[in-house]
Amino acid sequence: MTSRTPSAKYIDPLDHIWITAAHELGLTVARSPHGYAHTDGKGNLFLAPQEDLDHDDCLAQMILHELCHALVQGEDSFAKPDWGLSNDDRDEVYPDDITREWACLRVQASLLRPYGLRKLLAPTTDFRVFYDALPGRPLDGAEGREAKLSHDGLSLAHHPPYRRVLTDALLATAELHRAVAKASQRSQRGPASSATPLPLLWHSSPAPKLHKSGLPMSDGMHEAPDAATCAGCAFLLAPEKRTASYRCQRTATEDSAGKVVQPGSAACALFEPPLDCQTCAACCRHAFSLVPVRPSDEINWKHPQLVAKSGKDLTVIRDPERRCCAALGERDEHSFGCRIYHDRPRTCRDFTAGTRNCLEARRRVGLDA
Ligand code: SF4
Ligand code: SF4
Q: What's the number of domains the chain is made of?
């Protein structure tokens, strides 16, 4: 018999997607028997060898989970061992680690939700109980420091370099999920694993059906509220002409006005009740940096102290400390209000809730995924 020298190495496709994502963000993934997962602050992420993990542990999920920790820990987390977490339950700062873990799980669930992957890539640690109990909108119910960490982490996920890398990896994961589901249907639930009598993770977390918009009908764990339809969703855009179509703004891009949907259709899992601009104010916060002012805008003579001039350009002054429009009042940490609402510039008047730009603003401040 002639011997053969392998010319390539096989890798699980899902692992490959997430190892590539980590690499694109500057992280090398390696196996190490010293603990479940840790980083050295020098660009290495060490994960336990397969033989030390549980049957449902998945390298892709572990990488995603660690990236969610990095997001919650902030922009300089890659330079700190273990992202800057203490990871020592004898340490007096450990309670803060737990708050950060909760925020990390809220970010993880939020990122997975739009792709119907919330169950497939759920964490497999003791915090799974917390994760499973999170509501349909995973940031709901967070308060104080946990809420701030969650929103800041999700906001960072929508900025470079994370945004493109995570979007690509999550899209590829969702496609693989659907491909495996189709193959399994053909082979009537697929082969049983010889190593364990447990069902395969792919089967216990099936790919959700898709809405006509292409969005998932389930986030993997939750569906839209009973009887909710596109008609009641904040992101349904009514046509300007009676003969034109209703469109879903969650699917709108720079090149497309969004998928055509029927208002009476059952809502997808990303259904959003009507938005309240006075508690949101995302577009006035750090989502967009400058609000242009026209010479004809009333703000020029009614509130001249709020207008900045640079050559011929006029803009509303920013509050650098609060990273928001200087005209924005803050009633409390969850409620905002424009102090010059009736005299606001045309740019603000033209900005409409429920549009693609609104969604973009909400993503940038960590209100949406
Ligand atoms: S996001 Fe809203 S409008 Fe779009 S498909 Fe889902 S329920 Fe319908
Ligand atoms: S328009 Fe959208 S982003 Fe702006 S305050 Fe209203 S809901 Fe928030």
A: 2
> Counting ligands in written order, which one lies closest to the CA of residue 347?
2
Res 329: pLDDT: 85
pLDDT of the residue at 334: 65
Say which ligand is closest to the CA of 364.
Answer: 2
Whether residue 248 has its Cβ less than 6 Å from ligand 1: yes
Give the nearest ligand 1 atom to 233 CA. 2
CB 109 within 8 A of CB 134: yes
**Confidence (pLDDT) at 185:** 74
* Domain around 97: 13-162
Q: In this structure, is residue 5 part of a structural domain? A: no
CA of 271 from ligand 1 middle (Å) equals 5
Does the residue 263 lie in any domain?
A: no
Q: Calculate the average pLDDT of the chain.
A: 92
Give pLDDT, residue 52: 92
Residue 92 resides in a domain: yes
| Position in ligand 2 atom list of the atom nearest CA 351 | 1
Over residues 94-121, the mean pLDDT reads 95
Distances (CA, A) of 212 to 73, 106, 205, 248, 265: 37, 28, 22, 10, 9
Q: Where does a domain end: 137, 162, 187?
A: 162
The residue whose C-alpha atom lies closest to atom 6 belonging to ligand 2 is: 277
- Ligand with an atom nearest the CA of residue 291: 2
| Rounded-to-integer distance, Cα 274 and Cα 277, Å | 10
Atom of ligand 1 nearest to the CA of 272: 2
For the chain, report the end-to-end CA distance as a whole number of angstroms: 56
Q: Give pTM, 2 decimals.
A: 0.92
For residue 206, being part of any structural domain is answered with no
Q: How far apart are CA 76 and CA 70, in angstroms?
A: 8
Q: What is the pLDDT of residues 46-68, one digit of tens each?
A: 999 989 998 889 999 999 999 99
